[in-house]
Amino acid sequence: MSTRENGSEEEPVIRDNRKIDPETGQVRETAPAEATGQNDKEQTDRSSSSSSLASDLASIELATQLAERTADLQRLQAEYSNYRKRVERDRAAVKEQAVAGALAELLPVLDDIGRARDHGELTGGFAKVSESLEAATGKLGLSAFGTKGEPFDPTVHEALMHSYSPDVTEPTCVEILQPGYRIGERVLRPARVAVAEPEEPVADDN
After folding, report:
1. If you average pLDDT over every residue of the chain, what do you get?
2. What φ, ψ does residue 88 adopt, rounded to 5°?
């Protein structure tokens, strides 16, 4: 018994892949199977291109967000740094002002100690107390200034007496009536001095 008679053999499928129609002689259009294959390939390419574009856009958006967050962080860090410096500067200014106010109240006491020392009255236990007080004020930054013979400077000297002298060539502090005090560059009290200037030349009548 043949295979065809048994009914187990399938009918063969014949496809005419000729590009020219033998009956009309015209060029045939692309076979449906080939067109379908090309369409599938084009669709796959478009899908791959679309996926790549979406991935690129996501990367760009992520990079933009990262740059914005970094800029925000840097701006906040700069603002915090400026705030901390401003707080430290204000704290230092308040401290200096408080110390200056306290030391300014002690200046009359230091003046009394200086006068007592000049008159030889600072002896015994009072001498120890005065030394301790002067050492304590020195640790807080207080320093005295004003020396006999130094040039007169109106920014740190206060002239209480004025005279002329042939022994000076410029306005000079010839006597320190009361020492001045400063903290660092800040003058708490100017030195009170007697000032002498060079003698004026005598006019020649001839």
Report:
1. 82
2. -65, -40
